Amino acid sequence: MWTPPPRHSVQLPILTPWTDAMLGTSIIAGAAPSSGTWGTASKLLYYPIRLSDAFTVLKCFVLSGATVGTDSWDIGVFQMTDQATGRMDLIRSTGAILSAGTANVVQESGTWKVAANKAALTTGTDSTDTTAYTTASVTLKAGRLYLMSVVNTAASAAVVSGIAGGPTWTSRATTQYNTTAHRVSLWSGVPTVDYTGTIVISFGATQTGARWSLNEFSGVDTSTTDGVVQAVTGTGNSTTPLATLAAFGSANNATFGANANTADSTTTPGAGFTELSDDTTTTTPGSFLQTQWQVGNDTTSDGTITSGQWGAIAAEIKADASAVIIPPSSPGNPNVYMGMSMSGTTATVFRSTPDVNIARGSGVLETAITFPLPTTATAAACATFRLPVAGFSSRSLIG
Question: 36-112+322-393: which CATH number, 3.30.70, 2.60.120, 2.60.40, 1.20.120?
Answer without folding.
Answer: 2.60.120
